[in-house]
Amino acid sequence: MKCVIVTGGSRGIGREICLNFAKETDYHILVNYQGNDAAAEETLTQIREAGGTGELLKFNVADSKMTNAVLGNWQEQNPGALVEVIVNNAGITRDGLFMWMSENDWKDVLSISLDGFYNVTNFFIQKLLRNKYGRIINIVSVSGVKGTAGQTNYSAAKAAVIGATKALAQEVAKRKITVNAVAPGFIKTDMTAELNEEELVKMIPANRFGEAKEVADLVSFLASPKAGYITGEVININGGIYS
Ligand code: NAI
């Protein structure tokens, strides 16, 4: 059984990524999420309605013990299963000016993005290397590329994952494993629901926020065999705000 894991797959961009895999591939879809059981169940229902198969894996990607325990248990129960595609999508924001930023807001944002990348990717990497084919896709942000005021923690977290993407890509390229980052601008999800869309679109050349499905379509391409010669890249998807 060949599988894809999508962290933070219960809603938003992660859910659309899961649904694309359900529609376009035969991969069994492992939907990781942190807390919202109802949203996760809804994603699973939609995966099945789209003709796919999947299951829910609830754990906090920032917690290495919990991640190893849940993934270890899953692998034990599915010894023949191979996770061939990893989409590190889980992420949070805790915005605020740096001078008032609490240590928790710094650490939580860093650890979900960066430790989350390590915990999940490192768990699967040896099997992936033995498989001699794989795709690792990290969802970062325009903030990690250009830096955004009010998001020093988030910009640092995403920039760190960009560095990891470029380094790991070089380590595993010979085994036909690609590692890329996708850097969205403003996308309509719960994460951006509180933002003043009317004001912000003025600085977006495309004059609108992006849709989660548009990000998912880029991920689909990078996850496909067609994208085999693209690795170590950061692909911006932002309506022209920064490139
Ligand atoms: P969202 O807030 O709608 O969804 C976040 C997902 O991450 C949820 O499924 C949640 O369960 C999961 N999650 C959060 N903490 C977790 C943890 N510790 N362990 C496991 N899962 C956890 O967010 P959205 O907008 O769908 O964002 C997805 C990714 O895209 C994030 O990495 C975000 O930083 C990135 N992004 C989003 C942009 C936007 O405009 N919405 C722009 C640029 C990047």
Report on the architecture of this protein.
The chain has eight helices and seven strands, in the order E-H-E-H-E-H-E-H-E-H-H-E-H-H-E. With 243 residues, the protein is an alpha/beta fold. It has a single domain (2-237), classed as Rossmann fold, CATH 3.40.50. It starts with a strand and ends in a 6-residue tail after the last strand. It is 46% helix and 17% strand. It is globular and about 50 Å long. Bound molecules: 1,4-dihydronicotinamide adenine dinucleotide. 1,4-dihydronicotinamide adenine dinucleotide binds next to helix 1 and strand 2.
Unreliable segments of 5+ consecutive residues: none
Number of domains: 1
Question: Which CATH top level class fits?
Answer: Alpha Beta
Biggest beta sheet attributes: 7 strands, parallel
Going by CATH, the architecture would be: 3-Layer(aba) Sandwich
Helicity, as a percent range:
40-55%
How are the strands ordered across the major sheet?
3-2-1-4-5-6-7
Proportion of residues in extended strands? 15-25%
Give the CATH topology.
Rossmann fold
Overall shape: globular
Bound heterogens, unique: 1,4-dihydronicotinamide adenine dinucleotide
Q: Number of helical runs?
A: 8
CATH homologous superfamily heading: NAD(P)-binding Rossmann-like Domain
Class by SSE composition: alpha/beta
Radius of gyration: 17 Å
Instruction: Give me the oligomer status.
Output: single chain
